[in-house]
């Protein structure tokens, strides 16, 4: 029975990472912002002080499944020594496979209205928040902070760099979408006043003078004006909020579901404040559809930029960051696990030398 209890503890530890690699990451319609949320959600589970472990002693029926199997809360410091070893090794793997966030990561999260208000928490490395308040990841008192002010400074610099990339990229898209009013930039430069400091003074009456030139200050070009307009759109976008419960209800395939069904799934109350549950909003809202149907009018340039950064599928390198063999056990569409193919891949890989030896013998015979 001790082996079964150990297996239950290990399942609770690796469960979120395994589900992420086998199911969530392999969705063909996954956008990059959702992948960042899923990676963060799964990694944070490893640094939780409580794990939901299968309750092997609880009564169950013949219809009990993996999803409905009874679970009980077990504190991290109550896990067995072998489970602690598993937890420590998995944390090390996650830390190696999930790199530090970049400015591009910040930009992607800000383009997604579901994640733009949670950028700081999403790019924070797993476990940093818990360690900074003086609690270690194994449930014991921490003796020192992980990075302290250095981590905070790095976080602020990354967000600032992401903001700059967002504003610069949006300016380019905005000007291209409004190219008709950008065409006067060169003409405006041609008619601007020359440098009057270079004009010599003469007292010779024989100099034939034409019409006097009025001294004018350099005028603001149309490109500068458009950049200001583009920045104003980004400012408005970053403050724009959406009622995701209504959106999820409208997009739901189940017509019988109402707002009351989605409200407890997508909202959470923390410290008396009601907030959106980001991972649930990502699960129930098709963001590309929302951009097509709702945002393409008011935020046309933002929607165009989002199609570039969110519409493309994540690379295999990103999707297989959790499990390096994830791509080998999925079918071509990567929408579900192909168990038979997974077994064949494992068998063929581990018996590659033997199979080659058998083929050589068959050909020689």
UniProtKB/TrEMBL annotation:
It holds the Pfam family Dimer_Tnp_hAT. InterPro entries: HATC_C_dom. GO terms for molecular function: protein dimerization activity. Residues 275-350 form the HAT C-terminal dimerisation domain. This is HAT C-terminal dimerisation domain-containing protein. It comes from Phytophthora fragariae.
